[in-house]
């Protein structure tokens, strides 16, 4: 019997948060507005916190490989235990974490840090972030799983009674105060994420590499990568505070300078956090503020192209010196003619061999899985934006099918947008002539 096709679910619409820092045009679809996320233009105080959005691509394009359930022998301690969503057993009667205590600890850390006068040092900022990360998130994760397994437990009378505050009896005309809603594990996780963002986005905080790594590591543990693009933009262009005459002054910074580029290892960590959380919006925002930024491209030119360029410039001088020495070893021609002939021959040989090697290096595609370069893309463009292509390749492989023979069968608004986005970056997703069996 043929199955009726499932109705297509509407995906997310990426907010306007990623400013096109790479200098290339963005997508302007016929029926959808541009998806530029202008997080770089927002001030740290006015930057809103994005709600957690789980794209439809993460739900609809997962692997079709069947899940194998392994039955473990039950021990006497786990006979009365209830298995959670990931197969781990939670012993019966395990106490819930003290959510109110966690919130109070986070508020205490945030208040103490923001009340600090002057410019906080890097160690102070790291201690504040580590204090937020010191909360046992495993208990919160278990509580989230139990709530997800039994969503009706929040509406039961018993759970409602457990969340009531102490009710003050009515005296005179004073009304009875309403009961405050009980805290949920998701609220505590959001509270920790908001506190970490408030610490990093504070105007007097200097976001160094260690602070950025600690923040990314914390948000990855929380599963909240929504603010990572904003913090990466602040890392590159946040005004640097300076203490002068007892007052704090701010020095503007150019986010396009090579010294303000995000390191490759930090960018990979942030992208992995967004992919693990199945957040396509955050993944694209991280890509725009790291691999596709002008600062990253300039840093790559300085670190990787400066030495080869110096070798190319000095090679003719070295060849001419060698040709001059070779001309002294013969007596058939005059010295100048022999020098010119030897120099021309050596220069043609080295130039031809180096050109063949450069073309072979820039056109190699063994590392490409799904995202490849479009025909006619200049070789210099391929080398400069190879890191961006690799990041888009990782995103496409993470949000699409895991089976190689099913590449190109993804559907849905999110994946169609991703395919169109890749096409506007001079790249092609699932090029037919490069797929297995088609070359």
TrEMBL record:
The organism of origin for this protein: Canariomyces notabilis
Stretch list, region Disordered: 147-185
Key words, A-Z: Membrane, Transmembrane, Transmembrane helix
Membrane-spanning ranges: 305-323, 343-362
Protein name as catalogued: Uncharacterized protein
């Amino acid at each position: 019997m043929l199955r009726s096709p499932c109705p297509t679910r509407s995906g997310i619409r990426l907010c306007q948060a990623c400013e096109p820092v790479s200098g290339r045009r963005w997508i302007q679809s016929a029926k959808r507005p541009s998806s530029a996320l202008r997080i770089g233009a927002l001030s740290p105080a006015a930057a809103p916190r994005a709600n957690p959005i789980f794209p439809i691509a993460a739900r609809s394009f997962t692997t079709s490989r069947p899940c194998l359930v392994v039955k473990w022998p039950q021990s006497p301690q786990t006979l009365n235990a209830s298995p959670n969503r990931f197969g781990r057993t939670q012993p019966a009667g395990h106490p819930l974490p003290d959510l109110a205590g966690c919130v109070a600890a986070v508020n205490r850390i945030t208040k103490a840090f923001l009340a600090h006068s002057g410019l906080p040092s890097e160690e102070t900022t790291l201690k504040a972030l580590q204090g937020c990360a010191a909360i046992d998130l495993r208990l919160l994760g278990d509580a989230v799983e139990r709530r997800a397994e039994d969503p009706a437990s929040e509406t039961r009378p018993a759970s409602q009674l457990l969340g009531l505050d102490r009710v003050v009896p009515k005296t005179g005309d004073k009304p009875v105060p309403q009961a405050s809603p009980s805290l949920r594990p998701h609220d505590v996780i959001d509270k920790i994420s908001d506190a970490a963002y408030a610490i990093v986005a504070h105007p007097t905080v200097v976001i160094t590499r260690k602070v950025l790594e600690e923040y990314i590591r914390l948000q990855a543990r929380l599963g909240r990568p929504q603010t990572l693009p904003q913090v990466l933009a602040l890392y590159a262009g946040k005004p640097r505070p300076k203490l002068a005459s007892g007052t704090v002054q701010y020095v503007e910074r150019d986010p396009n300078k090579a010294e303000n580029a995000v390191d490759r290892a930090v960018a990979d960590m942030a992208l992995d956090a967004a992919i693990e959380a199945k957040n396509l919006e955050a993944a694209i925002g991280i890509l725009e503020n790291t691999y596709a930024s002008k600062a990253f491209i300039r840093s790559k030119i300085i670190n990787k192209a400066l030495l080869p360029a110096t070798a190319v410039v000095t090679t003719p001088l070295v060849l001419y010196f060698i040709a001059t020495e070779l001309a002294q070893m013969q007596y058939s021609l005059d010295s100048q003619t022999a020098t010119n002939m030897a120099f021309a021959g050596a220069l043609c040989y080295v130039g031809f061999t180096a050109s063949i090697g450069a073309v072979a290096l820039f056109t190699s595609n063994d590392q490409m899985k799904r995202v490849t370069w479009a025909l006619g893309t200049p070789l210099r463009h391929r080398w400069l934006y190879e890191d961006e292509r690799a990041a888009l390749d990782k995103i496409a492989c993470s949000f699409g099918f895991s089976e190689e023979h099913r590449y190109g069968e993804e559907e849905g608004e999110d994946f169609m947008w991703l395919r169109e986005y890749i096409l506007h970056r001079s790249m092609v997703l699932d090029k037919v002539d490069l797929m297995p069996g088609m070359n």
